[in-house]
Amino acid sequence: MPKLVFIDRDDTRHEVEVPVGLSVMEAAHRHDIDLEGACEGSLACSTCHVIVDPAWFDKLKEPTEDEEDMLDLAFGLARTSRLGCQIIMTDELDGLVVRLPAETRNAML
């Protein structure tokens, strides 16, 4: 199983194993990582915003226009920002590192 590394808001690293086909957001929820995902992955909010380690960013599929529109609503946007619900784990992403942003916006409240 591929490994995924979350770096949380206090710089603590959490290395978890993730089944192929699961999203970064779903992996966070399974492993009690504080990544919200208010819309449950329906691409209707930006609360699963993560910042991908620059070494991994170009290995991801290009974001869709819908994802880019949602990212425009995210706090703390960075050049390597993506929505965790849109990053699907593959064997090629074994070792992927993502950082949780300092703030999030819950569009569902």
UniProtKB/TrEMBL annotation:
InterPro entries: 2Fe-2S_ferredoxin-like_sf (IPR036010), 2Fe-2S_ferredoxin-type (IPR001041), Adrenodoxin-like (IPR001055), Adrenodoxin_Fe-S_BS (IPR018298), Beta-grasp_dom_sf (IPR012675). Keywords: 2Fe-2S, Iron, Iron-sulfur, Metal-binding. Gene3D superfamilies: 3.10.20.30. GO terms for biological process: P450-containing electron transport chain. Transmembrane segments: none annotated. It comes from the Bacteria. GO terms for molecular function: 2 iron, 2 sulfur cluster binding; electron transfer activity; metal ion binding. Residues 2-104 form the 2Fe-2S ferredoxin-type domain. Its cofactor is [2Fe-2S] cluster. Belongs to the adrenodoxin/putidaredoxin family. This is Ferredoxin, 2Fe-2S. The lineage of its organism: Bacteria, Pseudomonadati, Pseudomonadota, Alphaproteobacteria, Rhodospirillales.
